[in-house]
Design goal:
It is built from 2 helices and 5 strands, in the order H-E-E-E-H-E-E. By secondary structure, the protein is α+β, with helices and mostly antiparallel strands. The mean pLDDT is 96.
């Protein structure tokens, strides 16, 4: 299922170009257009899911998070560490209404994040 008005669904469909790093049947990883760290990837389910708050398929979530770990390793982030973040709703900073995980690394992360 996809949402034709969703930018991430359009990236999954190949209608909008993205620098794809990895793809599985259930997940897609690509570079963020506005990186907040030396390495900043987005990992999304290939099926439209609004956010983590509405996600119901544990297998699908596992596939997305597994790809996040895989691309972090392929980017050379596994040894030094990295951060995986998802934003939920307006107060959480979610700007695209499609579940996505930010994989950030390549520099020291600070706490609290924001």
């Amino acid at each position: 299922m996809s949402d034709p008005s969703c930018i991430f669904c359009r990236i999954v469909a190949g209608e909008i170009p993205a620098t794809v790093i990895a793809r599985t049947e259930q997940a897609l990883a690509f570079r963020d257009l506005h990186p907040q760290a030396p390495s900043h990837l987005l990992v999304i389910p290939t099926r439209h899911v609004d956010s983590l708050a509405t996600a119901e398929d544990a297998v699908e979530l596992g596939a997305v998070l597994s790809l996040a770990a895989e691309v972090a390793k392929s980017e050379g982030l596994a040894d030094g560490g990295y951060r995986v973040v998802t934003n939920i709703g307006a107060d959480g900073g979610q700007t695209v209404q499609h579940l996505h995980f930010h994989v950030l690394g390549g520099r020291q992360m600070h706490w609290p994040p924001g």
